[in-house]
Amino acid sequence: MTNGKTLLLIILAFILSNIILLSCIHNSKDDNNNERDNAIIVAQHFSNSVFTNPQNVIDTVTAYQSKTKDSISFYTYELLRSMSYLCLGDFDKCNSTQKHIYKFLERNNHLCHYLEGGYWNNRALIERFTRMNIDSAISFYNKSYEHYLLAKDAIYPIDVAINLADIYRDKGDLAKAANIYQRALFVNDSIGKKISYNEILIGLGQVYCDLKNFGESQKYFDRAITKVDTMPIYSRFLLYNSIGNNYYFQEKYDSAIVAFKKAKAISTEMDNPYANAICICNLGESYMFLNNLDSAAAYLTKEMPYFNSYIANQAIQSYYESLMTDFYLRKNDLVNANKYITRYHETKDIVPRYRAMHYRRIERYYIKINDFREAYKYQVLAKGIEDSISNTLINNQIAEIKSRYIQDTTLLNRNHTIISKEKQITNLTWISSIVFLLLFVTILLIIFIYQNNKRKAELKEMANRSSLASLRLQNIRNRVSPHFIFNILNRELTVSNEGVSNLVLLLRKNLELCDKFCITLKEEIDFVNTYIANEVPSLGDNFILNKNIDSNVDLDNTPIPSMMIQIFVENAIKHGLRGYSGNKRLYIGICSDENNTIIKISNNGNTQHIADPASSTHTGLKVVMQTIQILNEKNINKIDLKINEVNSGEETEWIVVLSIPHNYNFDILKD
Fold it and tell me: Which pairs from 150-154 meet CB under 8 Å and 24+ separation?
């Protein structure tokens, strides 16, 4: 159910399109008809065997190559060998054969467009699945598309379009993937091409499953399943595995198990351990979510040797280890659960949804062993990923709705144009034509208005969801100013009235800043200076303030969330220095390195209350922690906050270090 699990399936669909393309290579000056025809027959014969028995394909086509000269037929076989090595996982030989093909293309001035289309399609596969280089893969697919157009072929660019749709789905751009699939389906229907028809339907079903539009997803799967008996074996496997995923994400695990068992039967028929392991993992997970641990164990433990071997993809292996963590947590076997947590390795190609699931499993583990600090840490990590996934899903849903709206409008306009043209050549009477046209336009108008209103309602709902994050942050920030004013008024009105003028100045600055979510460092330092001046009379003559601001810090142009420094200074004075009998020392330092603006605040005095700021009841500190958390969700480089106590023996010092990356994005804080 991870992207890794469908990786093999996507490769197989691409391989089919490549082999079909190979079968169309022709018209070379040094290629005789018998050799070319023989290469076409071999390519068609081995269209399924490339996956089911790649070594046999290599042996057979190598024998054929020994009987052919340096021609397009020879390199037709070379493309078959390259794809077979790709299926075997022998990437060195795969790359070597690709280089051999490219040298032939160079010698022929890149005029063999069919062969070159297949070459670039293979290059895209290699970049995509062995190097995880998505951008290069997209570039190579576009080159493949261009060469097939130069070959004046109207069919095979559809296969490249399907490849592009698949890669945009992997990239997370679901709206673009859906748009490309829909266009490929339209062209496919227009020219009556059926070779890639099922792959398009399955791809659309997968995209709408990712968009959580399960009804639309099932619609395309239902269309594909009517042709299941005529599909190649890997397409049948892909279809049933995708249907199982669709039920899985709806938490209909009983139905998912039925589909996964059909996929497993097909994977056994293919005799492919990789595909078989994917099915077993899917089945074990589904049984586990049904709390049928005996059946889950029968599947998950069966494939343990495979996932411990070098063959397993790292992302799939990590996901399997996460599943085993969950399995042993459900059995309350904490020793084995910890073993699989320890074995789990983060890789960049693990799907974010499953990384969040793994963090939730670790959170449950630490709760079971009563380590709530670690449990909270993983809860925060999981929540951050889940919020990001939710925002991305909403954006994709909005984009897909807009795309469908544009397509529907275009289709309506096209239909209207067709009607107008038909009216010009019809033999019907004027009265009949007018009545027919008015009736049809009325129907189109009703449909257009209905769909337009529906799309607007859906877009409005998505926009409302997107505003929730900003509303949550605004609620947090509004709590700071009243809390601060209450502390100052309480002190000034209790001690004396001599500080009223200072208080008025302080309140004026507070009112100026409380409506600003983001201010400059200069504004923040001025406010902190005013606040400290207001507090000095109550601290006594033994209060020592030390400020150190590096000259390379641009105070006027460095942004910071308002009151970010003041809250820590206020806590240092209120809880650390006030009431302390010895010399009261407060330090504020600001400097800048290559990547960050670094703010340091330290004080001596009473520090025990601040040992754990995450659990503190102080409103100011809670606002700081929540503000940083929300901001970091919107940025790649994170604000780092460290709070430490240093005990020198004679006294204890509280040290706060706040690192803010340069070019940090504070847009979420703007009105």
Answer: 150/113, 151/113, 151/114, 151/117, 153/24, 153/114, 154/191
Dig out the tokens for 71 from the structure: 């021609």
- Give the per-residue SS3 of 444-498: HHHHHHHHHHHHHHHHHHHHHHHCHHHHHHHHHHCCHHHHHHHHHHHHHHHHCCC
Phi, psi of 2 (to 5 degrees): -90, 170
* pLDDT tens digits along 147-190: 877 876 666 677 788 888 888 887 778 888 888 888 778 777 77
Joined tokens for residue 452: 């337009």
Distance CA(261)–CA(299), nearest Å, equals 11
What secondary structure does DSSP assign to 624-652, as a single string?
HHHHHHHHHHT-SSPPEEEEEEEE-SS-E
**For residues 21 and 40, what is the distance between their CA atoms, to the nearest angstrom?**
10
> How many Cβ atoms from other residues are within 10 Å of residue 611's Cβ?
12
Write 243-246 long-range contacts (CB < 8 A, 24+). 243/205, 243/218, 244/282, 244/286, 245/1, 245/206, 245/209, 245/282, 246/205, 246/209, 246/214, 246/217, 246/218, 246/221
Query: What's the CA gap between 490 and 492, in Å, rounded?
Result: 6
Is residue 385 within 8 A of residue 421, CB to CB? The reply is no
Distance, in Å, from the CA atom of 543 to the CA atom of 536, rounded to the nearest integer, reads 7
3-state secondary structure of 590: strand
* DSSP output for 201-215: HHHHHHHHHHTT-HH
The span from the CA of 554 to the CA of 279, in Å, is: 58
Query: Residue 356, Cα to own-chain centre: how many angstroms?
Result: 12
Helix (H, G, I), strand (E, B) or coil at 653: strand
Between CA 645 and CA 633 the distance in angstroms is: 28
pLDDT 10s digits, 70-94 = 777 888 788 888 888 887 778 788 8
Q: Rounded to an integer, what distance in angstroms lies between the CA atom of residue 591 and that of residue 551? A: 8
Q: 523: which strand partners? A: none
pLDDT, tens only, 466-486? 544 454 455 445 544 555 665
The dihedral over CA atoms of 644, 647, 653, 654, expressed in degrees to the nearest 10, equals: 20
Between residues 398 and 524, which one has the greater pLDDT? 524
Give the 3-state secondary structure of residue 562: coil
Q: In the structure, what pLDDT confidence band is assigned to residue 65 with cuts at 50, 70 and 90? A: confident
What is the number of other CB atoms lying within 10 angstroms of the CB of residue 623? Answer: 20
Structure tokens belonging to residue 263 = 């996929």
DSSP for 53-117, written as a single string: -HHHHHHHHHHHHTTS-SSHHHHHHHHHHHHHHHHHT-HHHHHHHHHHHHHHHHHTTT--HHHHH
Residue by residue, DSSP assigns 258-318 as: HHHHHHHHHHHHHT-HHHHHHHHHHHHHHHHHTT-HHHHHHHHTTTHHHHTSTTS-HHHHH
User: Nearest-CA neighbor of 301 among 318, 277, 319?
Assistant: 277
Give 113's contacts (C-beta < 8 A, 6+ positions apart): 147, 148, 150, 151
Report the DSSP beta bridge partners of residue 590: 549, 599
Between strands 652-661 and 584-592, the pairing is: unpaired
**631, 646 contact by CB (below 8 A):** no
